[in-house]
Amino acid sequence: MKVSIIGATGYTGEELLRILANHPQAEIVHITSESQTGTAIQSIYPHITGFYDKTLESMKDLDKLADSDVAFIALPHGHAMEAGKRLSAQGVKIIDLGADYRFRDVGVYEQWYKVPHTHPEANAVYGLTELNRDAVKEATIVGNPGCYTTASILALAPLVSCQLIELHTIIVDAKSGVSGAGRSLSLGSHFTEVFENLKAYNIAGHRHTPEIEQALSLLAGEPVILSFTPHLVPMARGILSTCYASLKAGVTASQVDEAFQSLYQEEYFIRLLGRGGYPSTKQTRGSNFCDLGWHIDSRTNRVIVVSAIDNLVKGAAGQAVQNLNVMFGLEERTGLEQAPLYP
Amino acid sequence: MKVSIIGATGYTGEELLRILANHPQAEIVHITSESQTGTAIQSIYPHITGFYDKTLESMKDLDKLADSDVAFIALPHGHAMEAGKRLSAQGVKIIDLGADYRFRDVGVYEQWYKVPHTHPEANAVYGLTELNRDAVKEATIVGNPGCYTTASILALAPLVSCQLIELHTIIVDAKSGVSGAGRSLSLGSHFTEVFENLKAYNIAGHRHTPEIEQALSLLAGEPVILSFTPHLVPMARGILSTCYASLKAGVTASQVDEAFQSLYQEEYFIRLLGRGGYPSTKQTRGSNFCDLGWHIDSRTNRVIVVSAIDNLVKGAAGQAVQNLNVMFGLEERTGLEQAPLYP
Amino acid sequence: MKVSIIGATGYTGEELLRILANHPQAEIVHITSESQTGTAIQSIYPHITGFYDKTLESMKDLDKLADSDVAFIALPHGHAMEAGKRLSAQGVKIIDLGADYRFRDVGVYEQWYKVPHTHPEANAVYGLTELNRDAVKEATIVGNPGCYTTASILALAPLVSCQLIELHTIIVDAKSGVSGAGRSLSLGSHFTEVFENLKAYNIAGHRHTPEIEQALSLLAGEPVILSFTPHLVPMARGILSTCYASLKAGVTASQVDEAFQSLYQEEYFIRLLGRGGYPSTKQTRGSNFCDLGWHIDSRTNRVIVVSAIDNLVKGAAGQAVQNLNVMFGLEERTGLEQAPLYP
Amino acid sequence: MKVSIIGATGYTGEELLRILANHPQAEIVHITSESQTGTAIQSIYPHITGFYDKTLESMKDLDKLADSDVAFIALPHGHAMEAGKRLSAQGVKIIDLGADYRFRDVGVYEQWYKVPHTHPEANAVYGLTELNRDAVKEATIVGNPGCYTTASILALAPLVSCQLIELHTIIVDAKSGVSGAGRSLSLGSHFTEVFENLKAYNIAGHRHTPEIEQALSLLAGEPVILSFTPHLVPMARGILSTCYASLKAGVTASQVDEAFQSLYQEEYFIRLLGRGGYPSTKQTRGSNFCDLGWHIDSRTNRVIVVSAIDNLVKGAAGQAVQNLNVMFGLEERTGLEQAPLYP
């Protein structure tokens, strides 16, 4: 399987390289970067010295990449559509780790991301593998989910699809490590500013909001509007999503348990810690797992679901490789079986 | 002013020592520890070498402490009542940093803390200074608020007292640094376990829940029941509390702004970052400030308030000193004017 | 290959489990813990949920472990000798991750570790694989090196074996993450104490000193005595060892380069960053690599070598698995090929 | 005392503001920034909201600052000389926190800093207060020492001035938190890169080397050349300096003790932890203390001194204020008496 990575120098690109280094079927044929064309990848990421002997190419001559079976695109939003259009036309399957192919309604994309969608006919599949596996199998273009969204949708999907909660009461309070902000320099990612510091940001305006709503609305069969609050936590990796909703009248704890069991019991990458369980981000670090625990607050009749993932793995590159495996008929775990790095 | 600290070796006791080292009116007369009686305090906390030349005494001979004007008690819950009773009977004013004197209804205390209350006649005043200043002035026993509770009550008080929110929709998602768990050894505070890790704990069962509810119920004039979720964040100091509630129909953003302004504009220790403002814990580190920002999520008609404090200062020792100043007629900022330690 | 782990609940035991989960030839047959006998391992380490379905046994009935081909011992020093003696007599190969089998001269062991050596006839091989591979191949008992020692010996071996430095001038200034102190609770590993803190400890008295000296003395053909200073750094994993020595008169930079090249150029797990190179601990995190860079301080005629490892991998469990592979004739990298977890 | 700060938006400028907020005699009259002229300082540093109501001015119109009694300059090296020259000519005392006024021999400055010195006639005094107090009293221009240099010189001064060590054997292995790298954005200060990471940098080439050598040479009465290695530690504040030297033949431990006692026993800001003592950076965080401990390695006849400071306080702004106090005849501790922020 010939694999290219478009935009290989950001953290998602790097994480793809790390994971694919142990993938028995993937051969990296091209890696690209516009800002560092011509540079050897190990001079940018010395930790993978010995795993690759590759030099970054430009994506300007896109046709050179047409010898790939699949291309991962790890570019800022708005920049994947041209490559997606051109390469998919040449038979290259596309897994985009940005936002460009995540929305069914391109109007929603354009409203939240403030750029025109230039590839509305793409017929892309939303790559939250556990919820969309059959479609991913047939897909030629996959929009790989966001990090917050993966953690939040997986937490809420059982409750929404089993109709156990009042949809208008959903609140997602999510917390992320700093790698989620990428490798671009900014004061908000400057060590001395972030260290021993904690804050919320983009309240009621974060772009992962409509993505979570889209997935839950599909499961609910009706529009879901929710509140989503992201926070920046002084750690490199990990997302913890704490999700609140009011139970519908008469819903029992067993029904809640049952909802999680029935949806996820066969899923390798979903680990159910059960009612009363407490996921923690480091329990998933470096792995593709999503750990889930849920709680009933009987005093307020709310259910509170907590999910933990590694934002760069299940929240980005790992799920992308999971989708790759599904798209190419491989065992879904291929290259993704390493245990979390704890402690 | 002769000051004693009962239980001086925990982090709250230590923080009292740190703050009082720069308090011009406070003279430390006794410091106690049962486990380390006879030890010089600077051998336990070398950072205060040069500030104190004091040795830890036992509190067994309580009467020795009766030469104090005021005693801070920084003991685990259940252990303050005996000292509180005996010393207040001898004219010593009491500021308890634990939970024993925080509840008007001792039944609530006994239900959540699982110990009998042996000093129900104490007539203690709840020491959230900004909301209770007049009572604190006259108090002989002050129950100093918890850390999570201080951050959460200050965030919600304007909305509740101005009747702008649906009380049954309140959710508090709070995050704390590890010093909040104290200095006692536990796997949950072991560096290697906590580092680059994030988790929730005690969902729907944390003991600060009824304390927040008590304060808000008094402001509301009716019972408030809410969901409270604490999280452990890999940093030493700081609490960030993210509070959600649905606005009552017709409430405007200006009314929300007005509620914060009118309650807090004269308060030195409350810094209003305004609508759209983002408090962060490090902006308050080492200081007695509580920073507040609020947001309207117009898509869901919720208000989201974020508060940040240093859990050991405004969340414990700092507010205790603030109460001390109020009780003894001093300028409320005395000893508390140092700027936050940033970065 | 049937593998047992004696002492599976400490961080080195856990790390063996993590690594062996991806080792194609190793089958775990027994894991032991005296304090938690009967407990399922995933209830202690939830991150490996799904990888093992094993319960901790006691090592009291040692003969039960005799069905193993090899036993890793991850116990505090002084506790491996009984199991080592009994099991090796029954044909079980032993890899001890503690100090009991590291010293050729048991007198040195007894002097620094203050316990009698009860298995002096063991004929154990010191398992610093790169320097001792042939002996490890034939070994029945391997004393796996310490974490600081691995980093320090690998840094200095080329210079010592090529006789480029004045042996009496060697100084090793080493820095470790907190996982090196293990999982036992102590104030020195309490999050709030360690966070944003840095200190040296055990100056001129750390037990890894004679171990480094033993290895370098063998390479030098004469006794080496050096100064070793460990430091505790606020991170979970990683050791950086900064090693100083005066160059012998007339030694050139090229000779230094040559010494590193000739000793290590064929070594997969040693990555040479070259003269002027700067290893960093996170570049090796989660992997079995040792990264090396060296510098000539021409103003003082010193050479300064910096090495970086993951203390739990190349400094403990990884090197133990490397030795396992060598002892059983497997490809040395088996189970150890995953790329470092960066960032 | 009218005080201006030229370059108020970097971390040293900010730290001056933090400290001077509690200085009873200092009134801030001007603060400058070229990149953010016209901005209110609290919009850049919200943590000092409420302490200052000042707007950043440009330093282009230098004469406006001539109404100051003293100006702190916190600019990158090479940029202080013009202001220093102009303002000192108008009677404004100068305390420069950069390197421009630190060297007696401007040739050394020009060689290491690669810029011409345009104010060689300045007659500046090196502001390591404890070693140079009398000269500071009379100074009109003070070159405030570097952070690494303060920690390292204070550690070695007793040994050098009492002639107890072989000067050519001195090695300084120093470790710093990330705030030492300033607030300018760089990949080397990007949170995700630095977190759980440790590395050395600028080996044998760091610009603090000649500054340490200058101070020690003056004390020794002969040239001192040493090896200096800085490391970057994943924390915001703090420097730990571990200093090695061979004792001269016959020097006893008591002589070493005596050297520290005699030089420092009257010094408020130097805290002697004694022989066998272990300073740690957090014990000094936020304070102007330098903690010192020393050790004799009798196996190698070396002395090892460890010093800890807060790089932004005793290593920069705190010592600058200490010098201010000395220059203006104030009690040296004024504004610097707050206890370290621990934990």
Automatic annotation (TrEMBL), chains A, B, C, D:
One of its GO terms (cellular component) is cytoplasm. It is an enzyme of class 1 (oxidoreductase). It catalyses: N-acetyl-L-glutamate 5-semialdehyde + phosphate + NADP(+) = N-acetyl-L-glutamyl 5-phosphate + NADPH + H(+). One of its GO terms (biological process) is L-arginine biosynthetic process. Its EC number is 1.2.1.38. This is N-acetyl-gamma-glutamyl-phosphate reductase. Residues 2-139 form the Semialdehyde dehydrogenase NAD-binding domain. GO terms for molecular function: N-acetyl-gamma-glutamyl-phosphate reductase activity; NAD binding; NADP+ binding.
